[in-house]
Structure formats: structure tokens, C-alpha cells
Amino acid sequence: MIAIFLGPPGAGKGTQAEAAAEAHGWTHVSTGAILREELANGSELGVKANAYMSRGDLVPDEVMVEMVVSRVNQLGENEVMLLDGFPRTIAQAEELNSKAPSGSIRVAVYYTASDDTLVSRLTGRGREDDKLDVVQHRLKVYRELTAPLVAWYRDLGILCEINAERSIEEIHADTVASIRGSLSTSKPGS
Ligand code: AMP
């Protein structure tokens, strides 16, 4: 099954996805980490993507969909895949819905935090795309292109909202509970 990790940059979804995957043997797929690795390897894809990432813009949908669909297609029968940072647009979500194995997308874990919290967390991280003007642009891009996914997954009935202003441990417990809970529900439509 697939669990989607959704939320603004700085909400901690990457940290939480990594911790949950590590603790339970789940597969962690972080599109941002894949892109950063491609850049570190000097691949054509990495260099191309970095032009968008360094500005705080989204990498084009076609590139991202291809990257994720190839992984989602290899999803094992009992595998739990945490999709961290994808989808980030409605177009990506629609592609994912049509290409993922039927009934496999069970939950969208959505982390919430105030803008002040997000900005102070992001500017303290020291990543290349964490400079204040880039951070502000990433938040704007999030609000315009990614935030509409919250209502989209709520309408599908699989949104699970988590207050990310608490301790890492409390957020972790809620994250694991929401994934476990959706594991035990029957597949929609089956
Ligand atoms: P993240 O590590 O998830 O914060 O992603 C870092 C950057 O990678 C983003 O700011 C985007 O430029 C790019 N990126 C990651 N995932 C996606 C995606 N699904 N769609 C478009 N761009 C993405």
C-alpha cells in the first residue's frame, strides 16, 4: 500500500517519513532526496532539476511522474511505501491515481504548522534551497500548487491531519498510527 506524506516545506514530513520507515521496515521514497542524489552524481536529470530546486520552484510534472511511476509499479504485495514529497500538484496526484495499483493509495498524512514555525525551521536547516527569499518562494509555490491537494484527498476520504507543532515523538506516534490504521482497512472497491 501507499501512504502519501503531504504538507508545507518545513512541516517535518521528511523526518517523519524516514523515522517511520526505519522503525517499521517500510519503503521511504523521497522525491527531493532522489533529485539531490541525482545532482550529487552529476546526472543530466540532477543538473536540470537543480535549476528549479535552487529557485524554490517545482520540477516539471512529467519528470516527477516518470520518476515515481517506475517505483510505484514495483510495489510489492505486502510492501508499505511512504511517498514523501509527491504528489505536489493536482496533475501529479491524478497521474498517481491512474498509474498506482488499484486501491493501493490508502492514506494521505497531512502535517500542519504555522508559517512562523515553518520559516524558522527552514532557515535553520542550512540546505542550499533554505535561504530566506527561496524559503518564502517555496511557501508561496506550496500554497498555490500543492495546498489544493489537501481538499482533493479529503474528498477521497483518505486525509489524515496531524498537528506538526508538537514533539517529534508525538508526531511519530500519530504518523505510525494513521498508517497502521489504513493498513487494516479493506481496500476501497475490493
Ligand atoms: P523536498 O526535499 O521534498 O523539500 O524537495 C526539494 C525540492 O525538490 C522541491 O522544492 C522541488 O524543487 C523539488 N521536488 C521534490 N518533489 C517534487 C515534486 N513532486 N514535484 C516537483 N518538484 C519536486
Describe this structure in words.
- The protein is of the alpha/beta class.
- The protein has one domain: Rossmann fold.
- It has helices spanning about 15-25, 30-40, 45-55, 60-70, 90-100, 115-125, 130-145, 150-155, 170-185, and strands spanning about 1-5, 25-30, 80-85, 105-110, 160-165.
- Strands 2-3-1-4-5 form a five-stranded parallel beta sheet, sandwiched between helices.
- Helix 1 crosses helix 9 and helix 2 (about 30-40) packs across helix 3.
- The longest helix is centred in the C-terminal third of the chain and has 17 residues, at about 170-185.
- About 35% of the residues are buried.
- Bound molecules: adenosine monophosphate.
- Adenosine monophosphate (AMP) binds near residues 59, 86 and 87.
Brief synopsis:
This protein has a single domain (2-29, 79-183), classed as Rossmann fold, CATH 3.40.50. Helices cover 54% and strands 14% of the residues.
